[in-house]
Amino acid sequence: MFSGAHVILYSQDAEADRAFIADVLGFPHVDAGHGWLIFKLPPAEVAVHPTDGPPQHEFYLMCDDLDAVLADLAAAGVETTRQVTEERWGRLTAVRMPSGAELPLYQPLHPVAHSL
């Protein structure tokens, strides 16, 4: 029924964040015209969490080895913005994008759906 999902990240410095995703994170991309890059994401999954507040959406990049990813990003000069927390469902942190926005990173410790 569906062929994919399109995620949009709003940025105060879209050009710098696009370069970060392309050059530092190494995501392949197409140019939709005039430097408007659209990136191929790794396999994805979606979860629906309850909330008492207004609906919101979050975007996390998942990884199999959070420590290795953080070491690679640190070597590229990327700042970690949150201490790694150990939750029952996974390990969580975030890094700073050039625009100043945080990009959460997540190593799941639960079964994942993206490879079904």
Automatic annotation (TrEMBL):
<dbReference type="GO" id="GO:0051213">
    <property type="term" value="F:dioxygenase activity"/>
</dbReference>
<dbReference type="InterPro" id="IPR029068">
    <property type="entry name" value="Glyas_Bleomycin-R_OHBP_Dase"/>
</dbReference>
<keyword id="KW-0560">Oxidoreductase</keyword>
<dbReference type="InterPro" id="IPR037523">
    <property type="entry name" value="VOC_core"/>
</dbReference>
<keyword id="KW-0223">Dioxygenase</keyword>
<dbReference type="InterPro" id="IPR004360">
    <property type="entry name" value="Glyas_Fos-R_dOase_dom"/>
</dbReference>
<feature type="domain" description="VOC">
    <location>
        <begin position="3"/>
        <end position="108"/>
    </location>
</feature>
<protein>
    <submittedName>
        <fullName>Extradiol dioxygenase</fullName>
    </submittedName>
</protein>
<dbReference type="Pfam" id="PF00903">
    <property type="entry name" value="Glyoxalase"/>
</dbReference>
